[in-house]
Design goal:
Largest sheet: 9 strands, mixed
CATH architecture of the largest domain: 3-Layer(aba) Sandwich
Number of strands: 17
Low-confidence stretches: none
CATH superfamily of the largest domain: Glycogen Phosphorylase B
Number of domains: 2
Bound molecules: adenosine-5'-diphosphate
Structural class: alpha/beta
Oligomer: single chain
Strand order of the largest sheet: 3-4-5-2-1-6-7-10-11
Radius of gyration: 23 Å
Strand content: 15-25%
CATH topology of the largest domain: Rossmann fold
Amino acid sequence: MNIYHLSMECYPVAKVGGLADVVGALPKYQNKVEGINAKVVMPWYNKPFVWEQEFEIVFDGFIHQSHHMFQVQVMKEKSNALGFELYLVKIPGLLDRDNPYGYWDESQQFLAFQHGVLHWLSAMQIRPDVLHCHDYHTGLVPFMIENCPDFQFLKGVKTIGTIHNGEYQGQMRWSMAQYMPWFDSWKGGLLDWGGYINPLATMIKCCHAFNAVSSGYMEELFYNFRGLESLVWQEKGKAHGIINGIDLDVWNPETDPMLDFNYNKSSASEGKWHNKQALCLEYGLNPDLPLFSFIGRFANEKGADLIPEIAKNAIEQTQGGINIMILGSGDKAIENRLREMNHVYVNLSIDLGYKEYLSHKIYASSDFLLMPSRVEPCGLNQMYAMRYGTVPVVRYTGGLRDTVQDVTSGGAGLNFKNAGVEDCVHAIHRAREIFWNKDYLQNLINSNMNFDFSWDKSAENYLNLYRN
Ligand code: ADP
């Protein structure tokens, strides 16, 4: 079975968030299964990986967007270094950028990617068994292969759409249709949602099956999906929930080259302590106190706007009895507030930016990981934390519901109900008590490290979806 994953991100080529981790791991695990050949197709970016590896050009052609003609080159990474075939699509002016997102013309950029991929496959007469579209950036592919005469060759190819984040739908004005490959205009209704072209809605309407990245999140989408609730009800028969896994080769405290000290289950308490000491020394924190961390994008869906108040209240209420370490970037108001607080509270340390190596160190060094998310489609941070023996303290929502059980119901993490400062701080007090009960904490560390979050099972679930 030939599977083509289409995505804007893939770790380690280009990563902004969890999408990259998923697309960098899922195909590798799928390829372990006899008869499966899963590949990744993504845009070309000006990134170290792209310059460090060797590529060969497998396609050179042209597409038209409106009145403009663009060159399309497809490059294949020669050594399959990632455990799957990797194809990069380069379109000078649109797909040759430093980063996946954040450009004024990104709608046109995403359209060009989808158009370029389908043009390449059609021109080279490559007919995949499955086109697996990740998030709205590739959400128009199921529509295009059925309704654009240029891609007649691909008509009938099975398409799967995965919703990694339903908050982003790629809504654009109808005038953007000029940048699409020519399609039968009477099919335009499939693109429309509320008077706009909505790629995520189109994906749901046109794909053969779609899934959210956890069952908990899939259930929530029926009631809270930024206006697409009625659509998921209509398309209910195609809806699935498949939880993400984690790449155990990358996220392994025993071999992780980004850690100061490696450790395994039997050396966890010692290993974590050495890592914590090193991190605390670097960031001016007292290693004897419980260390709570937050890693992530500063966005409302992550509850990042709550973090400054949570930190303030928790530090003040415990009279400096805890440390808080924050790694992230995004909303400038949150960044500025944290900068101010950093001067006031010795128990708080922040690092504003995107630092892969530091995230690994923090997962290993922390006692607790905070996730006050308002929306969490799956969440990978809690799984990385658990794998590194860190106790997750999470809001009970989406994928966090599916992966973290509270200690009071036999789990090894802490849940709180409302995405608010008070509930989270209350959970921090509970966690602090656990910290001082060393045997109990050790049990939780062991339980968390024993959880099986490997991709094997979920990769199989995706294969079953394709087979159906
Ligand atoms: P999302 O994709 O919604 O941002 P996920 O929990 O699915 O959230 O994945 C987040 C991924 O991004 C994790 O691998 C996390 O470690 C990583 N990450 C987020 N922010 C940072 C940061 N500032 N520095 C390093 N890694 C980060």
